[in-house]
Amino acid sequence: MRVQDFSGKNLDRIMAEINYDISLLYVVPCIYTRNLILNHLIDRISMVESVAVAMSQTVQPQILPLQPGVTPIADPPALMQPMAPGTQATFTLQELSRFDGKGGNPAYVAVNGIVYDVTNNATWAAATHFGLTAGKNLTNEFASCHAGQPILSKLRAVGKLETM
Amino acid sequence: MNTSNGSITCPEYKARLNTAASLVETVKTQIRQDVLRKRNLVWLELTGCSGNIISLLDGSNPDFKYLISQMTHFIYNNSLLASEGQNAMEQLFSIPGSDYILAVEGAVATKNNGLYNIIGRLNGKWITALEAVKTLGEKAAHVIAIGACATHGGVSAARPNPAKCVSVQSVLNRKVIKLPGCPCHPDWFMGTIAHILLYGQPELDSRDRPLLFYSTLIHDRCPRRSYFDKGIFAEKLGDKTCMFKLGCRGPVTRIDCPIRQWNQYVNWPIEDDTPCIGCAQFGFPDAMEPFISYNITRGVKK
Amino acid sequence: MSKKIIINPVTRISGFMEIQADIENNRVVDARTEGLLFRGFEKMLHGRNPFDAVYFTQRICGICSTAHSMASTLALEDAIGVIPAEQGRYLRDILHGCEFLQNHIRHFYQYTLPDFVKLPEDYPLFKAEHSDFRLPKEKNDRLVKDYFDSLDLSRSAHEMLAVLGGKVPHNHGVFIGGITTQATADKIIKIKSILHSIYQFINDRMLSDVYTIAEYYRDYFYIGRGYGNLLSFGCFNGYKNLGTLYVNPLVYIGGETSLFNPDNITEQIDYAWYKDKQSFSKPLEADPEADMSKPHAYSWVKAPRYNGLPFESGPLARQWLSGEYRNGISTMDRTIARVLEARKVALIMNTLLENLIPGVSVQKEYTIPETAVGKGLIDTTRGALGHWLKINNQVISFYQIITPSAWNLSTRSSNGLKGTAEQALIGTPVRDINNPVELGRTVRSFDPCVSCATHIYTGGKHINTIQVIP
């Protein structure tokens, strides 16, 4: 699924897709197709779940979700999990810029002071994402597109951005 | 798998033929039985490559002959119209006032008040693309923006956007059905038209794309998905594995290419061993580039 | 006392164009072709990833996108020093051949035929105002049938292209080294079987259709000659084992054929809507800014010249230069040459298919040099197409495109020489000044593609000319 589509505003659309998937399941006899639709459906349901969790916590200022490793889709998003030990590296902007996802370097981006690994994130093909490139502080860009979406919880945090 | 009549048909394959085709079949029957009337269709070409009308001619399910003879009164298209000059423009501008569906391909050039794209001369006066789409767009029963340029500016609006191109929606204060793609697949258009004839406007997502075609990411139905999940990535074009590291935009592009395929359903970009370049996603091309990269990290060095 | 005729839009072309003609005693004494669409592709390409040019430049033109993938690929190969394998060239040229067939069939039936054949008027698309339809009913009916039947064949030509090119318009297959995928036996046989039915259609019906038109419109052998200067960059040529299957890079002027030299190409912008610092430049030199306020300018199409002279490019030029057809140079010869070329290309494709080795992969990982310069010149459906590019800091720093339609529909130049199609209109008799069907017939014989011709360059002056694309 495309995480940036995920916001309260889009809830109606997500529900429409869920209904559409369910109606398809009634008529599609091919087992492979059914599995694809089921995957899609699970994906959408997890989005709705995440919205619910995010909404229940709107009173608190958003605390950056940090979770090492890839979050399985079925897991509820761990919004407040503390950073795992050993991921406390700090990066200056200049150091961060080396992690552009090219020539053997992983692709890192910083949001709200935390550095995330997007090397194998599906929406970051060729270490680029809707015209943005890796190795940068993308706090503002993130806020303008994904405010309120539980995207960061699915990314692996690798350290902090040194603030100066 | 179905095994009726001794032949094996994957329902998914059948479904992709049927979404557009079965709608069209119903239209055909109802028009023959006089239940449904043909509607006027105007196809404007604006600032673009006129590739969507070529793509429409490549359609087979139904085909162009069928569209103009059985489904619609096809009033105007610059690439196909027999008449020319003043007569052609009169034919075009006689249409407001009647019931018609407006299909638009190409972006709207706004530089110099639209003079970067002139589509004809009516009574001696130049008619810009901007003026034409405003005049015809406000009065149409439905407006369908076809292809990337019409839906969001597309390649015509690529940085630095020399002709100051914008989408059809940006100059119209009304609902515009959007069929992004570069070009638009003929079935996406035919299916939308058939739906309009039968039931009115199809169900749209929050960005006005018909859910019938634009509901699912390419990535979710990609035949090479298992390679992605296992982290097996192609190193060059022509490889048979996941094209993610070369720049595949399948994970951000919501369209049915993997099951529909192109040109009589014979192939599609990923089957051709190349990455999806996100041509059916808003933001194409600038937000979907680079299209092809070779130096992207696959295994992270320690 | 001269009268002015203006035709706008010129329908049944790709893109937007206006014809202005001055008529005296029912003959054209002056003419301008104006390209009325500007997008500025050359500017857009600055700063982009060089590999992206192959897919990006295809968006210049929906009917001849493969042509741009060919020229941009050749320019990139030149810049980064890749020499494609012979199998890669065969595969790529097969894709290019599919586009020739698609284009020629569509141009002849959907774009040309309505000028000469009365189509059924119960279709709003086919209403025609003039009355100069000369075919007897029985023959007219046959051609109408072929108008509709041809739709299946041009579509099949694109289907063939997609078998190896992924999709079309805007294919994914043509790329550095040849094509992206491998031609397996099943794909080869599929293409062969489609090609067979297309060849039969061309041979059995399209040829007799064009000769039927020629029989009833003989006067068009004497209309629309132009300068008679012909040029080709060559195509389906110079294979290691197969030699030249069609035409080498040649020019023809004043009865003499000579070798084409790319250094002799210049572009002039005296009458095109671009700011001019100098009146003409070589392709790798200038990329002028758009300027619609320029006095005297009348078109977005620039004026490419060879040795300072306007040239015609396209099927007739190629048929003439390769010695396949030398009946004459006129509106009707141009139309006949297009059909003959369709048959020729089908035969060439068959030869290339016979020489394919199934399952060969021609792709490698490519790297972009810090700086490089490259050019890609090739004859495509509408004629001579050139892409020139410079790479700096591993991105495109300069891009120049000169399209076939720029050659054929160019504006006039400072020495007063009209563009090729403008010149071809001079002397055309116009029977009914209110329905000047004669002008469109001649302009369409060049298969104008204004999307292509005006794509690009910003610069110079505004001339009264039409632009065409390859």
TrEMBL record, chain A:
Q: Where is the Cytochrome b5 heme-binding domain?
A: 91-162
* Gene3D superfamilies the UniProt entry points to: Cytochrome b5-like heme/steroid binding domain
Q: Per its record, how is this protein called by name?
A: Putative heme/steroid binding protein
Q: Which Pfam families match?
A: Cyt-b5
Q: Which domain of life is it from?
A: Bacteria
SUPFAM superfamilies linked: Cytochrome b5-like heme/steroid binding domain
TrEMBL record, chain B:
Provide the residue positions that the database annotates as binding [3Fe-4S] cluster: 257, 276, 279
Which sites bind [4Fe-4S] cluster 2? 219, 222, 242, 248
The keyword Iron belongs to this UniProt entry's keyword annotation: yes
Q: Name one GO biological process term.
A: anaerobic respiration
**Domain NADH:ubiquinone oxidoreductase-like 20kDa subunit positions:** 49-196
Q: Quote the record's binding site residues for [4Fe-4S] cluster 1.
A: 49, 149, 182
UniProt keywords, alphabetically = 3Fe-4S, 4Fe-4S, Iron, Iron-sulfur, Metal-binding, Oxidoreductase, Signal
This protein's GO cellular component annotations are: [Ni-Fe] hydrogenase complex; cell envelope; ferredoxin hydrogenase complex; membrane
Domain Cytochrome-c3 hydrogenase C-terminal: start-end pairs? 214-291
Q: Which family would the database say this protein is a member of?
A: Belongs to the [NiFe]/[NiFeSe] hydrogenase small subunit family.
Which species is the source of this protein?
Anaerobacterium chartisolvens
Instruction: Enumerate the cofactors the protein uses.
Output: [3Fe-4S] cluster; [4Fe-4S] cluster
Assembly and binders? Heterodimer of a large and a small subunit.
Chief subcellular location equals other
For this entry, the protein name equals Hydrogenase small subunit
Sorted alphabetically, which SUPFAM superfamilies does this protein's record hold? HydA/Nqo6-like
Species lineage: Bacteria, Bacillati, Bacillota, Clostridia, Eubacteriales
Q: InterPro entries per the record? A: Cytochrome-c3_hydrogenase_C, NADH_UbQ_OxRdtase-like_20kDa, NiFe-Hase_small_C_sf, NiFe_Hase_small_N_sf, NiFe_hydrogenase_ssu
From TrEMBL, chain C:
Q: Which cofactor does it need?
A: Fe cation; Ni(2+)
Q: Which residues bind Mg(2+)?
A: 42, 401, 455
Q: How does it assemble?
A: Heterodimer of a large and a small subunit.
Binding positions for Fe cation? 64, 452
By its UniProt entry, which InterPro entries does this protein fall under?
Answer: Ni-dep_hyd_lsu, Ni-dep_hyd_lsu_Ni_BS, NiFe-Hase_large, NiFe/NiFeSe_hydrgnase_LSU
GO-annotated cellular components: cell envelope
Q: Which UniProt keywords apply?
A: Iron, Magnesium, Metal-binding, Nickel, Oxidoreductase
Keyword field contains Transcription:
no
What is this protein's record name? Hydrogenase large subunit
User: What SUPFAM superfamilies does its record include?
Assistant: HydB/Nqo4-like
Localized where? Cell envelope
**Protein's UniProt keywords contain RNA-binding:** no
Where is Ni(2+) annotated to bind? Answer: 61, 64, 449
PROSITE patterns per the UniProt record, alphabetical? NI_HGENASE_L_1, NI_HGENASE_L_2
Which family does the entry's similarity section mention? Answer: Belongs to the [NiFe]/[NiFeSe] hydrogenase large subunit family.
- List the molecular function annotations (GO) for this entry: ferredoxin hydrogenase activity; nickel cation binding
